[in-house]
Amino acid sequence: MIIVTANKLTKDYNSLRAVDNIDFEISKGEYFGFLGPNGAGKTTAMGIIHCFMPPTSGEVKVFGIDVTENPSHIKSRIGVMPQDNNLDPDLTVLENLIVYARYFDITKKESSPLSWELLDFIEMREKANIKIQKLSGGMKRRLLLARSLVNNPELLILDEPTTGLDPHSRHSVWKQLKQLKSKGITLILTTHYMEEAEKLCDRVAIMDSGKIVTVDTPSNLMNKYKGTLEDVYLKLTGRSLEG
């Protein structure tokens, strides 16, 4: 089953073309990555998929629904982990999850045990009553992941999920994402970390200057171009993933 389809997707910001006439499909249960440096168009493509912004032209369908026709229904079935920390600093860890659940009409009676379950999943039960500003960067990223799962999404969208994290925290997030795969969740992520794409993604779309250069499995790309994903990106675009 195809969960996301894009056909000739284009997004302009005035004179800047952020996404340039791209096509892709993402299947149910697949972990799909947009790989590239800042400015490649990854975040813009993701924003259109989760109905944060409309395309300038082209078509994007999620669950068979055009993103411009019924965005509220699409949003009810997806979870989004943004690149930036937008947790509420005035609330505790537990309260951030319970309050967020209200956006999906989840009652407090339901959201409380659900929130505790999610804290167990990210191994932060002991931090439940701590305010956000007292958390480490890694803990904030894990809490954002838990928050994105509040509505039991069919599709999970992660924008640079481990940017700025130390290796230990990064591997902790990877471990939790791998556990979700067994539940059949479809995942789309953006990253400029080649190891992250290699460890997590079934397929990657290598992007550069708003275009998709190629789509394939990490192993196929590395075998074909005889190197790491970093080497592949350099060979295909002439520049490194660091931009």
Helix/strand/pairing category: alpha/beta
Can you write the helix and strand succession as a string? EEEHEEHEHHHEHEHEEHH
Mean pLDDT, to the nearest integer, reads 92
At the fold tier of CATH, the topology name of the largest domain is Rossmann fold
Q: How would you sum up the global shape?
A: globular
Q: How many E strands? A: 10
In CATH, what is the homologous superfamily of the largest domain? P-loop containing nucleotide triphosphate hydrolases
Rg computed from alpha carbons, rounded to a whole number of angstroms: 18 Å
Oligomer: single chain
Terminal CA distance reads 35 Å
CATH class of the largest domain: Alpha Beta
Number of helices: 9
Helix content: 25-40%
How can the largest sheet be summarized? 6 strands, mixed
Number of domains: 2
List segments where confidence is low: pLDDT < 50 over at least 5 consecutive residues: none
The CATH architecture name of the largest domain reads 3-Layer(aba) Sandwich
Q: Describe the strand arrangement of the main beta sheet, using strand numbers.
A: 6-7-8-3-9-10
Amount of beta strand: 25-35%
Short descriptors:
four-stranded antiparallel β-sheet; globular; alpha/beta; 36% helix; six-stranded mixed β-sheet; 243 residues
Write the layout of secondary structure elements.
Blueprint lengths: L1 E12 L2 E12 L3 E5 L6 H8 L7 E6 L2 E2 L4 H6 L1 E4 L11 H9 L6 H14 L15 H12 L6 E5 L7 H15 L4 E6 L2 H7 L2 E6 L2 E6 L1 H8 L3 H9 L6
Parallel strand pairs: 3-8, 3-9, 6-7, 7-8
Antiparallel strand pairs: 1-2, 1-4, 4-5, 9-10
Helix pairs in contact: 3-4, 5-6, 8-9
